[in-house]
Amino acid sequence: MRSWSAPDIVRLPGSGGPLRIHDTVTGAQRTTNPGATARMYVCGITPYDAAHIGHAFTYLTFDLVNRVWRDAGHAVDYVQNTTDVDDPLLERAQATGEAWRDLAAREIQVFREDMEALRVLPPRAYVGVVESIGLIADFVAKVRESGAAYELEGDVYFSVEAAEHFGEVGGMSREEMLRLFGERGGDPDRPGKKDPLDWLLWRAERPGEPAWESPLGRGRPGWHVECSAISLNELGMGFDLNGGGSDLVFPHHEMGAAEACKATGSHPHAQNYMHVGMVGLDGEKMSKSLGNLEFVSRLREEGADPMAVRLAMLPHHYRADWDWTSQGLEEARGRLERWRAAAGREAGPDAAPVLAEVRRALADDLDTPAALAAVDAWAERAEAGAGDDPAAPALVRDTVDTLLGVRL
Length: 408
Ligand code: 5CA
Ligand code: ZN
What we know:
14 strands; 16% strand
């Protein structure tokens, strides 16, 4: 489906170094080592509601990866899905009486506008499930041919005992996996499964639910197969980075990797896995049932400068859980004003060290607090009247724009 439009990117003088990240699989820092083109897949929204700040924080994080890789001289082939048919979407549509396709189309459009406002670089391919049913069904058929699937009352399940590398993404105990599977959309208690952790690949048609013809019978895909099938179709096996929020480590990325390995007979699904901390609101995890959500679109409607919204997320390291607060947004407004004033001056202190420090900080597992500190220090000196380099304000503007995505 249609992606969104790209913000202008200014090429900076010189180039940045290789990106080091915390890899979920090894639990250690690793230097990413993409070829000329870095291949990245990030799990997109389920469009039954507008994107909240937690979603935005996840896409901001991978936007920084995208920017750092580009600055290091790589092209980036970025793919994102959107779960435009799944249980939560159908349930919401049922509850409000809206057609599920209309609900999805509307929220996806709001999401595109949010991403454009936040200056998030668009994926090369933005792929919906509905438009991918054929390739997902073919993918499930491949998993079945590998011998890793079985049928239960017309549904198709993945048999966890067939997966050689199962558990490697999250490194969790079976007990923890069972708990999370139950909490996050799984069905550990369904009678008739060979193992409680076996998961649904293809759901046979149920009355009142959408369904499509396929070699597996009429039905619709389970959740995890959409991302393994779409990522393989767009990027191939062994792509450079698979990402999403930390709530996707298990079961989503674990089960997706197992499927991809079985369907292709190769390993690993992705070279690196990166997961983003959960954002809450005023002390509670943002959740639809609690109703404590802050939406990007609502902030925009209220007239918040999207660059202040972006800047309110950047002081938080991507792996930390944190809370969105209105005070954080106020602080970001102040910082944006200070940066704009300093970068609007006719001259300032030499900015080459600022560029070097922002590059160094971001390449070091996206150390955004250190990157902001470097710009803060320059802005403070400029506002105090230090330095007389007429090229400095423009270089700071370009650095902040290209690497942090904040237009001053
Ligand atoms: N459609 C699936 C992925 S295939 C899904 O998880 N959709 S979602 O709308 O629930 O979340 C979209 C993305 O935002 C996912 O990468 C998810 O991990 C991330 N995310 C969800 N909630 C938060 C949160 N509170 N903080 C940070 N990231 C979040
Ligand atoms: Zn996904």
